[in-house]
Design goal:
This protein is of the alpha+beta class. The chain has helices at about 35-40, 55-75, 80-90, 135-150, 150-160, 175-185, 210-220, 240-245, 270-290, 295-309, and strands at about 1-5, 15-20, 25-30, 50-55, 100-110, 125-130, 165, 175, 200-205, 230-235, 250-255, 265. Helix 2 (about 55-75) packs antiparallel against helix 3 and helix 2 (about 55-75) crosses helix 9. It is globular. Mean pLDDT is about 85; it is low at about 270-280.
Length: about 300
Amino acid sequence: MKIYLNSRGFEQDSDYRWLEVHETGQTRLENMPYILSAIADLIEFNAPSLVLARDGYWLVDDYLADAIKSIQEIGLNREGFQAFQDLIKIDLDTIYSPENQQIILLITGLEPDNWRDFIGRQIRLSIACIGEDCNETEQIFRGLATRTLDEQDRQRLTAEIKQAINFGGKEGVEVNYKHLIKLIEDSKNQALENKSPSDGDRIKIGGCTDVLKAELAADIKKYSLPKNQSPLVIVTDIQTEEALIEAQVWRGLASLVESEEWKILSKPENPTESSAQSSDQNLYLFRFFVKNKFSPVLLFIAFFLRMLG
């Protein structure tokens, strides 16, 4: 399991940054894992938020859509050509590989007591865990997720994580890996059931109320997560109903959803298969470009015309 932490130190030059925490220390991230970047974009990051997600072809689709949009905006010029060259060099297996499926938990907006920066502002803490998509990892992530949905338990969890972190050092904070990994792994000891959800093919969304949070926590304790390759659970502040539906969530709560009860919606037929088919075509196309070493200039023109439609 890989563990990532986002926070800042006390000093003025110790601003917020992502760190990968490991047995031998911690490393500042210059480039975030794409799955972490993609799900962070689904939430109001600075607010208390929760995401549980499986990787899948949806990540490749998002990456390609962003890259294609960027090239179109740049246009048919030198900069666009450079962006195209960078795109066809990307190994999309680093974004998603069916042979190495992963599950991720992201918790943001934790506010440890007495954590203030040099001018007295509250210091926030976010933590992300990425692990092999297996029953043990899912149990750990489900246990942690339920703790964030009850305010008192969230505060206790924040205090426990705080004990693994000290101010100081090169990055402004120093993390005790052994303490943190024990806290994370102990979450699998919670009393969780493993029933199969009867509505895994449904999207359920609602407003971010205490009542719906409690019902969501009960569902996470009771049911194994659906096998959907998508964001499964999103709980956040400023996010729209349309965005939750587009993300194909299993459960989604957000303050902009104007409903104090669950809204139950059907998913499109075979969304994963259609997404996979679309992505496979793009994977084949880009690898074909690289393998056969066609003229990049001619490829760029053809590619740009294809994108225009």
